[in-house]
UniProtKB/TrEMBL annotation:
<keyword id="KW-0670">Pyruvate</keyword>
<feature type="domain" description="Pyruvate phosphate dikinase AMP/ATP-binding">
    <location>
        <begin position="619"/>
        <end position="940"/>
    </location>
</feature>
<dbReference type="GO" id="GO:0005524">
    <property type="term" value="F:ATP binding"/>
</dbReference>
<dbReference type="GO" id="GO:0016301">
    <property type="term" value="F:kinase activity"/>
</dbReference>
<dbReference type="InterPro" id="IPR013815">
    <property type="entry name" value="ATP_grasp_subdomain_1"/>
</dbReference>
<dbReference type="InterPro" id="IPR051549">
    <property type="entry name" value="PEP_Utilizing_Enz"/>
</dbReference>
<dbReference type="Pfam" id="PF01326">
    <property type="entry name" value="PPDK_N"/>
</dbReference>
<protein>
    <submittedName>
        <fullName>Phosphoenolpyruvate synthase</fullName>
    </submittedName>
</protein>
<dbReference type="InterPro" id="IPR002192">
    <property type="entry name" value="PPDK_AMP/ATP-bd"/>
</dbReference>
Amino acid sequence: MNKYLIVIFMTSCFFASAQKKDNTTIKSLINSYKKDPRGPYNRIKWFCDDGTEREPKDPCPDKIGGIQHADYKTSLLDLRNHNHLFFGDILAAESVTSFLDKSHNFSHLKQYQLNKYLFSVDDGWVLRRAQYYRGAIQSEDEEEWGKDFFLDILKDDVLLNTKFYLIRQALKDIPHNGDDNTAQLMRSQSKQLSEEFPKFMDIRIKIHGQPSKSDITLVENYVAKNKSDLDAASQRDFNELIKTMNTFFAPIDLARLKSDLNQVKSKNETYHLLNKFFSNSETEMTTDYLVSEISNLLYQIKQNITTFNSSSDRLLILDISNQLEKTLLIEAQNLKTTNLLDLVYKINYLSCASVGTGLLENWEFSEIQNKIVEPIFEKDLSVASLNDFLNTTRSIVEWSSAMPKANYLDVVNTYNEFEPLAYGFIDDKVRSSIALSLGDAVSTLGNFVAKESNINNNIEALDNQSSVRGLNPGYAMGKLVVVDGNPDDVEVNSSHIYIFERPPGDLKPVAGIMTVSEGNLVSHVQLLARNLGIPNAALSYNDLKSLKKLDGETIFYAVSNKGSVILKEADDMSSSEEDLFNKTERSKNVIEVPVDKIRLDVNKVINMREVNASDSGKLCGPKAANLGALKQMFPEKVVEGLIIPFGIFRDHMNQCLDAENSVSYWDYLSNVFATANRMKKNDTSDYEIEAYQLEALSYLKDAIINMPLDEEFVNQMTSQFKSVFKSDLGNTPVFLRSDTNMEDLKEFTGAGLNLTLFNILDKKEILRGIKRVWASPYTERSFKWRQKYLSNPENVFPSILIIPSVDVDYSGVMITKGINSGNDDDLTVAFSLGAGGAVDGQSAETRLITEDNNILLAPARQADYIRLPNSGGTQTYATTFNAPILNEKNINSIRELASTIRKNMSDEQAYDVEFGFKNDKLWLFQIRPFVENKQAKSSEYLSSITPKIDSNKQINLKTKLN
């Protein structure tokens, strides 16, 4: 597999944390730079080629040579050295290596691009006044440096193939041939004007969402109509916007592009295609012709860029590619579609252009290409086929829109801590891409298919209903909270409904969720939502912004079994919808943890080989019991393991809580729940009861982490570790996995609620880790989930599964059924690079594997992953997306694994299996029942809102869209 890997140093050997500036200090520095006439710069000097520096009036001698520009303030140099932050870059002062910044996942390059964006939307940002500091930056030196930079990096075939999208974007931002990023400038100018003149907002929205040449007239008319309200400065700003728009919407300059092409020395097939296109007369350049031809040319350039021999040729061709994309962005908006066939063609063209502009990888497109091309050759399509086409093209839009995020989210998240405007950078990248027009076309298709299929979403505040699709059936009522940005620090409320830009990895219980990025179908968050009947849907980023107007309102939210979605204010609920929320209905969700067969008398460390599935819930939890069964079925695919059974935990809980208190840990725990029950009988509010329990359990959690371990138990651990792992305790890194009796019940999965510790080597940390895992069921998140759905949450017992670490190349999850297809014979698989893949909501490579097919549902868009060094701990790497994670050999191994599991375990039950590959060898880590919420799936109400679809209905491709 051709992967271009970059280590991201996360350890203390990076920059000394004591020297780092905190975010408050960084904010203060940014504000000081904005007010300073010199901004982040100190003063102007001559920088000579021999390394010496001279005063402004004492230039470098001609025989030495040099350039003149500003140097950086000491405070800015400190940010560079200690925080790896780069503001106000002077390119001519940089080296290619430090600016490209491979060792930090190209952070310096990406920060330069982000700085350019902030400059455009915030009146110069850190250069607010320094942009007028004469001589600080010499444009001719910057352009010369930029050209040399690209001529250097474009020699590298691997870099060009693996970071194609990033390089094309950098060409738009780094000066090297006199061009500016006019699309970004147009959006930033219109944004600033709309903030000053609210009446201009509608025109700004049009420019941002569906830009066309007619927008120039809209702006001119606005200026004429409101001339009396505009002072000289505002008039000048509007004139600058009109000038920018005229530049952006100018017709394609064939003569100039042909002149550029004539400089190319590699006369290959792509060269000849371009030459033929540029040789056509402008009268032949109809919108249809431009969209189809440019889409193909962009695709051909992407496929063949490394066949141009020199970096100078590659630079010329990529610049031409960016110019062609600019024309396509305009013409795609102008392309009219009157019937279904027109629309199918347009989606094909723009999908092809998505590859050509780097939003899709070549291999990704090849896996779905037939699905989007085949309808072109048909006269009629069934509703089922049309829905398949729609789902595929929706995926293309999602994958394309995720590429900017995958490339830039790391630096955006860093900047967002001290500069909230940074988050708009990713949205700006999406809006300046062909994903915008492709998304419009697919939305039009979605509206058409919804009408023909009788699928109608009912979502208040959305003009385009078709871009929302349900993932998990269920219904909820609660306060709507729209989270635009990083969700990890959001304190969620279990009675609220959340719309996330992406789902957090450790989501606490909520009433309902919608996400722009659904993560993957088999992450812990998705499995919990599916298991517990929590309604869950995917929507576009534009939808999220539109729904902000309902933020804080009490809403009703439902997802049907077929994925149709209802979201409306609670005041508009029907009587049947109101009846869904009576106490009798909701009480049906409560589940009891079985404790009648639990064995608390077994208090020795157990070899995993000695247990099987029948021991689940008795000696240990299902992870250990089922892995023991797998060890018997697949002795070469399952590692050795040790189990700390329920009984050892229970024995330790019999110790006194502290020297001054004769109450044991267990009695303290029992008293907490007894007190909560008394409070409930006394009509204490649920909020007060929960607050009391959380505070009491937080104390218990900390106490368990600090409890003394029985000496005999430690001796057993040491002896068994040596016996089973053939290594002394502290010499082999291991995983410590919480394995409670509340997991994998018939109606409750418990997936991901308790602690797993990765790759622990040190003996003291392993022993302390045991107590941390014991304590994890009493964390707020774990308690809230089980408290909400379990009738006897006090009877949760943790066992621990200890297995040696396997530093897998990639890992993930398999569900032994088709989650989306509903076919019990299919397999749903999600994989990410490194360890712990897919379970924590990573944007994973997701596939539907059938008996004779392998369908890509989503490619990975997770930019980093972890590996497990022998020294313990984890190391983080960055990766690229230019090759699939799973290969055909892996797919066959997965089919064989599923077949064996179905033969040897219950064939009436689907399973959730975690595993990984090391040098193409499959290693099994966990198996558990896959639990779905049958109540949500069978609810009469959900059935009533599920559309009845005639899948065989035929639709002629010449059918009018309106």
